[in-house]
Write a structure and sequence with these properties.
globular, binds N-carbamoyl-L-aspartate, alpha/beta, five-stranded parallel sheet, 12 helices
Length: 346
Amino acid sequence: MNYEDYLKTSPEDRLKYYQRDDRMYHVMRTQQFDVTLLEELFEIANQIKLMTRKPNGIDFLKSLLRHKKSMLYFTQPSTRTFLSFLGACQLVGMDTAEVRDPSLSSEYKGESQEDAIRVFSSYFDMIVMRDPKPGFCEYMAYYLDHSARSVPFINGGSGKDQHPTQALLDLYTMYRSFQDQGGVSGRRYAFVGDLLRGRAVRSVIFLLSQFDDVEMVFVAPDAFQIAPDLVQALEQSRVKIQKSDNLKEVLPDVDCVYMTRIQDEYDMSNESGQINYDLFSLFPEDLKLMKADSIILHPLPRRSEIHPEVDLDPRAMYWRQLRNGLYIRAALMLYIFNQSHRLQEY
Ligand code: NCD
């Protein structure tokens, strides 16, 4: 099948092309993960987290993927996702190399990105990719699958489209935070900010929608409300949805507040400048409106949408959320290379 025909198949039909021998091989979209797989990954991440507390645990983890090498191809700005993948590779012993600026590689000499990726696949066993073009990572995975050597691809953020590993660490944080209070099901989640252009929210809602009796409140300025295609998809999964532009009104009734920054890098003509983002920001005085056992998340980086004093509140989970990214990404790598069973040997 050529790529044009491939793109004509529905996104659901395409999920099978990310699998090998009934196992996830490429990580492209959150729709690939079901609750069973999520719980398996969370269990692996829990074990990794415990093992990193002991020197012999760290040594053991490093032995698991010592025979594998990973290329981190990040041509869209990134600090934490890049470092988190780097740190995760180091945790499980993978060697890494990176391209962050194509102008320093042979692409500058006129080499196509297709050829560049083909070179990487000859040297490496996995490619983690962040590129500003939506769908580009999937195209590259397709391209290599039809070449002599294919390697697993992990989407590290594809434009406004998706960011599946961010969604994994978000859900892993919700899962851990609520595990002693009956789990993530049956709860009310607020997503706040630029919901139209932020890929983190686009991604995590698909994971969350698979759990029972989940309610979502989308708090955003009209111009940046959640896209209609997502609302439709959520309604099909029978998620109860509400839209609002009043954060203070929403805060008392939710178990989780997921804050996001304005994504003004996607502005065509200063649309962000028209918005009073203070209305979609958390200040110390808002904390008293919130439930005592609720949590605050943010994919980071933040600007002013969470006042730094909020960090001192025990409900602020975003720094923990960031650390969880290391464990869940390391877990994903052990899973993809089918090595997680070896954790039992420790
Ligand atoms: C997010 C992203 O890049 O989509 N950040 C991240 O990966 N940690 C969120 C954002 O940039 O606002």
